Amino acid sequence: MAEMELWFTEQQTPDLGFTCKITKTIYTAKTQYQELAILETKQFGRMLVLDGAVQTTIADEFCYHELISHVPLFTHPNPKKVAVIGGGDGGVIREILKHDEVEKAYLIEIDREVIEASKKYLPEISCALDDERAEVIITDGIKFVSENKNMFDVIIVDSTDPVGPAVGLFQDSFYKAVFECLKEDGLFVAQTESPFYDQDLIKNVFHAVKSIFPITRLYLGFIPTYPSGLWSFTLGSKRYDPLEVDISRIKRIDTKYYNPELHKALFALPTFVQEIIK
Ligand code: SAM
Prior knowledge:
The chain is α/β, with parallel strands linked by helices and 278 residues long. The chain has two domains: 52 residues, Spermidine Synthase, Chain: A, domain 2; 217 residues, Rossmann fold, CATH 3.40.50.150. Helices cover 27% and strands 33% of the residues. It has nine helices and twelve strands. The strands form two sheets. The protein has a seven-stranded mixed β-sheet, sandwiched between helices. A hairpin with a 2-residue loop joins strand 4 and strand 5. It is globular, with a radius of gyration of 18 Å. 42% of the residues are buried. Bound molecules: S-adenosylmethionine (SAM).
């Protein structure tokens, strides 16, 4: 008898699914905030899924984690104190700690169980969470940011899609609180979904950030397991412009996607994306 095949599908839009073969269901849980699954996939290795949406996989996590971390950290000339909002898998913390000048990286994650499952089943991604420069705070990022002023050089918003507890992470009031939470020359970046499927979201976030921060930029990257593959990041900065960075001074660190030559090139937008943020 032929062995039964198991397939996981993320419904990326009401009319489109992303399907991959599962060799093992490693772990599932219903947490206080979301449904969590760790799956072993044939194509991408282990995969973290929250509420049916792929968060990260062993094979392509470097694309997302490097892009959301190194662009802001190499734009700020001296990032000492950095916060990640969300990011419970630990991938962004691992990338941040590749920067020697970072003294402390805080992970502000609402769901403790995402961190615990990632530590247990995704050690390649979560490996830096026990580093002495890392501190994990379990709380709502919206509350944390609104209660702390003038505290960080860089804030990285590594959120889930705008559903459930992450809805508020895409709202104007949150970006105002992020502005206040940053030091006087601070900057932040947020993942802002796909330019193919989430044009209204990108437009709204870009204009909200632009009304608060003196410098607002959008950049793009390729992440195979995210809807459409093409992904956007919105950066708001009080002083430093990523396009003004002297790339000859960017240190070579161990990366697979990011490099100094890409730093400014990531901000060169296809015409249809330029139209979205006009
Ligand atoms: N890179 C992923 C993506 O784009 O799909 C996101 C990875 S990370 C696992 C996202 C995390 O954000 C989740 O663990 C979720 O619990 C957390 N999160 C959602 N809303 C939050 C909030 N309001 N405060 C803090 N963390 C939040």
